[in-house]
Amino acid sequence: EILPSDWSSDVCSSDLKWQEVYILNGLGSLRLAETEHPLGLDLPPVCEPFTVDGPLEIASLVGTVRFEGESPFVHLHGSFVKNSKEVYGGAVNRGTTAYRGVEMFLMIVQ
User: Fold this and answer.
1) 3-class SS string, 15-76
2) Which pick of 16, 57, 72, 96 has the fewest CB atoms within 10 Å?
3) Which conformational region is residue 31 in: left (phi greater than 0), alpha (psi within -120 to 50 degrees), or beta?
4) CA 60, 73, 80: angle at the middle one, nearest 5?
5) Cβ neighbours of residue 71 closer than 8 Å, sequence gap 6 or more
6) Which residues are registered as beta bridge partners of 105?
C-alpha cells in the first residue's frame, strides 16, 4: 500500500519542522488502484469508489501531505494507464498497492 508510514524517515521526521509537502509527481507501477470520483457537481460531492486491477503504470500522481495533530494526512489524485490504452483516475485511496514502490517528487514547505 502507498502509506505515509512507508516513507523515508527523512520526509516524515519531526526534525524537519515542515508544514506541508507537495507531491509534484510520482513514478511507478501498481498492482491495484483504489480510487473514487464525484458522481456529479453537487457540493459536498457524492463520490463513488472503484477498483482497477493492474498492472497499471502511473501517468500522474499529485497531492499534499500535512500533519493533522500528530499524524500525517495524505491527499492524492492520480491517473493510471492499463494495457497502454485504458486510462483511469481519481482520488487515490487506502488499499492502492505498488509493485515495488513509488518514487515521488516532493516540494517541502518549512
Assistant:
1) HHCCCEEEEEEEECEEEEEEEEEECCCCCCCCEEEEEEEEEEEEEEEEEEEEEECCEEEEEE
2) 16
3) alpha
4) 20
5) none
6) 25
Question: How many Cβ atoms sit within 10 Å of the Cβ of residue 98?
Answer: 20
- CA-wise closest residue to 34 among 74, 80, 101: 80
Under a CB-based contact definition with an 8 Å cutoff, are residues 39 and 47 in contact?
yes
How many Cα atoms are found within 13 Å in the side-chain-facing hemisphere of 20?
6
- Binned average pLDDT, 10 residues per bin, the chain of 110 residues: 49 63 93 92 91 95 87 90 94 92 86
Alpha-carbon span 96 to 12, nearest angstrom: 20
Three-state DSSP class for 3?
coil
